[in-house]
Design a protein that fits this description.
Recoverin, domain 1; 14 helices; 4 strands; repeat; mainly alpha; transport
């Protein structure tokens, strides 16, 4: 039960950011500032926890830090380029790569690895389907494997992106066909996969009909022209204007 309660707590891995529910009106005009992402804060994110738990000690061979390892089949881009493309510092990228290299010597992550990660962090439920959906969201080019670059760029958005960036990433998660639309059936499938992963011993207790209620409430507000699908514009506009929707999507904070 204690583990379940910890999983349900807000984390820095929010898809929407703002675990404290700051009113949107108070955020307008506020310039994004790079937060200080400590190891403790990073470790609240399942994917980062998995990576950093395998990272070599800070005093290890410095040659690793430049991401040039002859034993790795896929060679990542240079550290400076990744730093420019993400909101991670050079030291954070070094630490993330050490763990990534240790867990994935080939330089690539496959879907089975994602399933293993989430089965370890959510043993009380079935994480298989959710891991499948999440993997596809990270797998930008759809080739069945995730490079270190794709991995850290996705994490950069989820951990440090703006509300707009996180919402676009969330839409991409729901848009499994990549046709620019979210259907009620797909959203329900993803919501069910999250509830299945959280298990029946979570706190508070999750009801059987909760996923359907969640999806019906979303579509009632998002599908403005009532055509049965939600576009990226409808999704962004509705989410950013409706604090209740922003709060209700909090469930994602704890499953990245």
């Amino acid at each position: 039960m204690q583990q379940a309660k910890e999983v349900m707590k807000a984390s820095d891995g929010s898809l929407l950011g703002d675990p404290g529910h700051t009113p949107l009106s108070k955020k307008e005009g506020v310039k994004w500032q790079r937060p200080r992402l400590t190891r403790q804060a990073l470790m609240r994110c399942c994917l980062v926890k998995w990576i950093l738990s395998s990272a070599a000690p800070q005093g290890s061979d410095s040659s690793d830090s430049e991401l040039e390892l002859s034993t790795v089949r896929h060679q990542p881009e240079g550290l400076d380029q990744l730093q420019a493309q993400t909101k991670f510092t050079k030291k954070e990228l070094q630490s993330l790569y050490r763990g990534f290299k240790n867990e994935c010597p080939t330089g690539l992550v496959d879907e089975d690895t994602f399933k293993l990660i989430y089965s370890q962090f959510f043993p009380q439920g079935d994480a298989t389907t959710y891991a499948h959906f999440l993997f596809n969201a990270f797998d930008a080019d759809g080739n069945g494997s995730i490079r270190f670059e794709d991995f850290v760029m996705g994490l950069s958005i989820l951990l440090r992106g703006t509300v707009h960036e996180k919402l676009k990433w969330a839409f991409n998660l729901y848009d499994i066909n990549k046709d620019g639309y979210i259907t009620k059936e797909v959203m329900l499938a993803i919501m069910k996969s999250i509830y299945d992963m959280m298990g029946r011993h979570t706190y508070p207790i999750l009801r059987e009909d909760a996923p359907m209620e969640h999806v019906e409430r979303f579509f009632q507000k998002m599908d403005r022209n009532k055509d049965g699908v939600v576009t990226i514009d409808e999704f962004l506009e509705t989410c950013q204007k409706d604090e209740n929707i922003m709060s209700s999507m909090q469930l994602f904070e704890n499953v990245i």
